[in-house]
Amino acid sequence: MSSRHDPAAGAIESTAHAGSYTARIEPAGIDIEVYAGETLFDAADREGYDWPTICGGQGTCTHCHVRLLDGDPQAAAPIDTEQERRAVTRLARRLYGDDPTGIRLACQLQLRGDVVAEQRTFRGERR
Ligand code: FES
């Protein structure tokens, strides 16, 4: 179940269940509940969002990528594949002035805490 940011309250209103985390996606301002063991990409799909992709979550297109802006440094499970490591390096070189900080593929990203992430082309549309 998703939730929306309430700027007046200054906090995420969440109806999350145990074993899940909130990913706030900016600039769309959408909160997505990500279950433990689930990727951000799969969580967005489960909630009906039209998340940017060409490869459908196979880790090859990089269109799903996010940049983590805020959250506990341990909130994102570490990169554990050479494929994602290479993709992050390419994205950093092409789009972020060679700075890989916080860049992740949403289709590979699992959470251990709440995060705020930028996804530049996601507008919060549902299918
Ligand atoms: S959906 Fe293609 S790399 Fe993640």
Highest CATH level, the class = Alpha Beta
Shape annotation: globular
* Main β sheet profile: 7 strands, mixed
The total beta strand count reads 7
Residue runs with pLDDT of under 50 for 5 or more positions: 1-12
Instruction: Decide which structural class fits the backbone.
Output: alpha+beta
Spatial arrangement of strands, main beta sheet: 2-1-4-3-7-5-6
Q: Report the span from N to C terminus.
A: 16 Å
Ions, cofactors and other bound molecules: FE2/S2 (inorganic) cluster
Percentage of residues in strands: 15-25%
Tell me the name of the CATH homologous superfamily.
Answer: Beta-grasp domain
In the CATH hierarchy, the third-tier topology is known as Ubiquitin-like (UB roll)
Q: Average pLDDT, to the nearest integer?
A: 90
- The radius of gyration over CA amounts to 14 Å
* SS field, number of helical segments: 2
Order of helices and strands: EEEEHEHEE
CATH architecture: Roll
Give the count of structural domains.
1
What does the model show?
With 127 residues, the chain is α+β, with helices and mostly antiparallel strands. It has a single domain (3-118), classed as Ubiquitin-like (UB roll), CATH 3.10.20. Helices cover 17% and strands 24% of the residues. The protein has 2 helices and 7 strands, in the order E-E-E-E-H-E-H-E-E. The protein has a 7-stranded mixed beta sheet. The chain is globular and about 35 Å long. The structure holds FE2/S2 (inorganic) cluster.
Sum up the structure in keywords.
127 residues, alpha+beta, Ubiquitin-like (UB roll), 7-stranded mixed beta sheet, 7 strands, binds FE2/S2 (inorganic) cluster
